[in-house]
């Protein structure tokens, strides 16, 4: 352990408030700062003098052991990602560092991540003025006079993960339930530069663990429906969710007729214990569509969780979803003209009627490919001819792994994670975007107007396909109001 230098103490009380910012603030608890004005609003110079210069934040001297500044008008406890860009003017033999502070109570009590230009990463806790090392890591990315991205992911009471560029470089799961605190930056014997600060809280997270379960099927309107209920003991997550409004009681509208008996011959939905990436057992949501024979109305029975708020239009215009998934080997080499919906939302109006869907498919030659499509099918009687065809202003986006295009072969028999970011608007703007990645590899990044009325809801887990007997396992679902990083993709969800 080492003692923290005793600085002049600054005491103040700041209430936890919700503010409006000239920089984007996307939801309660979110915050962004690009340091385009000096002084940046509500930033506190704890140690050394700081200024916003040329669009970034920098400390004045190289003398303080730890020069620290922090945003003093909002505090966070956990379940948030703190991301930013940083830059070091000095390298030396590793004593010149840049980094961040989080769960910062005062100059004697906080957590910090310090990075030198040799790539050494330190996670430390400062408690009562004494610095204790917690974990170390390494990254090949940091270099003198070069901007690089850093993200600190806080989850649950005890977990923190540090990401540099597109790699997780440090993970620690034994924090001692940190109190609510501020976020900030630090510079050691250095002129550190910092920009594009962003704090993005988790809107909803789920581990599908003990305390929650799939309900028995019930018949509603001649169709089977299931839900997911209970309180997860590990995360405290309550099902059904309410993060975008009143509870949506039915989370699995199977569209399977109640005349299809027994139910278990067609669909299977449950939670089960499996082995995860770390070799330990974990509870997951397991869905299997056993029979994909079309019914009289043309529909195929389906599973997968969907979230539709009770109040129409409560889904925001920007959201981000990530989760771990594992598909059984039945999905490998399924044959021609197969499809499997990965993500989807339908809107609330016929004007303009839109559905945004992301699917894995095979063509008539059995070639697998990914497809992103905006069409006019929203399951409403809008009187539109050929509603499933793409709309002209949003041409199909496709990627064929077998043709050497920049997308992975579809993954079966092992865990992977995907990320999905959507920003859309009623009229369509240049800020709109749809992005999708698997295991950190971008499949689509469509940056053009995405015109749609408000979404009715979104898919939380996959389960709609025309390939029989594919088991879909899902775990560690996380939803944000914005991508929790400065540049997409943002990385894997936390494991709960």
Q: How would you describe the overall organization of this protein?
A:
The chain folds into 2 domains: about 1-200, Exo-inulinase, domain 1 (Jelly Rolls), CATH 2.60.120; about 205-480, Sandwich (Jelly Rolls). Mean pLDDT is about 90; it is low at about 1-25. The strands form 6 sheets. It has a 15-stranded antiparallel beta sheet that branches. An 8-stranded antiparallel beta sheet has the order 1-11-10-9-8-15-6-3, with no helix packed on it. It has a 5-stranded antiparallel beta sheet with strand order 30-29-28-27-35, with no helix packed on it. It is mainly β. A hairpin with a 6-residue loop joins strand 20 and strand 21. It contains no helices and 36 strands. It has strands at about 1-5, 30-35, 45, 50-55, 55-60, 65-75, 80-90, 95-105, 110-115, 120-125, 130-140, 150-155, 160-165, 165-170, 180-190, 190-205, 210-215, 220, 225, 230, 240, 250-255, 265-275, 280-290, 305, 320-325, 340-345, 355-360, 370-375, 395-400, 415-425, 435-440, 440-445, 460, 465, 470-480. The chain is elongated and about 75 Å long. The two termini are about 30 Å apart.
